Structure prediction request, 174 residues.
Amino acid sequence: FSSGKQLWEMAELEFYVPQDLSIGASPNVDPLIQSLHKYTKYLVVLVDRKKARMFTVEQGEIVDHSEFIGGYVPQKVKSTGRDISGGDGDINFRHNEELLQRHIDLAAKAVTKFTKAGDIHFVIIGGHAEMFKKVAKSLPSSLQTKVAGSFVTEVNIPLNEILLESKKIAATIS
Prediction:
């Protein structure tokens, strides 16, 4: 921007703004506003069988994060095909699935508390692929419709990797 005695002022931003040269009586801030809309606040939720991590990303940076640690849910156990209780499958398999759903529901409640401000524009889910639909379905209804993408990852990856993966998805959202 240029103004008065200081002809040029460089503004350092954490996100890309297209180069533009405009001459006029007032500054042309349209490219800046368009870039700000592109880098709106979004939520990243990572869930596995032990815990959930939540991050809000705004203008290309993680601005807030939280962690929920639930009880351990055993790995998926294949049904043996035995019909112990008159149902379709094995008791252990059903029990593990119930434990997993309870863990995901508790993680979704933690997400609700974490996002109480309600200014999330979209949601990205990370973790194991088989959990994406379960996590999305358990989110509050206000966030379910905002799920924009997902990526396969371990929950304990470093913050910079989470940011890089989420930025790849965010860049595809207009």
About this structure: The mean pLDDT is 81. DSSP finds five helices and five strands in the chain. The helical segments are 30-38, 91-114, 132-138, 141-144, 159-171.
